[in-house]
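Exam revision sheet. Question 4 asks you to relate a sequence to its structure. Input first:
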Amino acid sequence: MKRIIWATVAMAAGSPAVAAPLPDAVRAMIEAALASDEPQTIAAVVAIARRTNPESAAEIDAMTADHDRELAAKAKANADAERERLASAGLFSLWTGQFELGGSWSTGNSRTLGLYGGAKLKRSGLDWQHDMSLRIDYQETDGQPTTERAVAAWQPRYKISPSYYAFGLTQYEHDRFLGYEHRLTAGLGLGVVAVNTPRMRLEFDAGPAFRYTSFYDGGPDEQRIAGRGGLNLKWTPWTRVTLAQELAVYVQKDNTTAASTTSIETLLFGPLKGRLSYNVQYERDAPPDQKRTDTVSRASLVYSF
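Answer key, structure tokens:
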């Protein structure tokens, strides 16, 4: 009789524990968390469910695994659909842009009030991105021009990978008070996306450039090979506020030029934003009667589309 009892006890001890069904209330709580698609909420609820229902851990794991598979399938379907949309888009599709208009206050060679206008267009396709821009500054004092500047640029970009790209650059500049009537720049190079998060994007690029400059003083036109380096930063510390920094430096024989724009913009309503910006133009080989550095502070309105 004792042998039978001990055999029964041994068999019971060696048998695996039967998993208990997950209580309905706990199941409903987990399902609600999974439906929220919020990683922090899901992790917290699942952790509590596991601690309070260890005997139902397998069922909890199965629920989270099913959810993960559904998310992965949905993400793949969305990525495939987006790729197909970009690949099939026409030439006049996928364009975004903005128009900017405002007043400006400049220091350096002149201290005046004036008008500023700008426009940007961008097309982001499957592998190619095109950026076009136009900026015009015109200011007068007592009916006499004191600032006369225009810049137009086109920069195509080929996406090598999410972190690297190749680019080309075609740019036209006119600045009467820095001494040049026309400056044409053509360049190419490579760039790297150093930071790419929902709130911040930081890019660096560099490469050679050819520059043709026609001067106001009647001197001979200049043709130079230059090295170009650039930086672009966008940071959104808050939902309605964006800080940006653009910098381009050209180094060539007998001259160095640089252009920097620092800005902060805030969403006002709908597609309208307010922007404050500070622009610095540096020309080492400026005319003798002009300063090497011009600065412009702007307050403007930006319409995005």
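Marking note for examiners. The helical segments are 2-14, 24-36, 39-52, 57-88.
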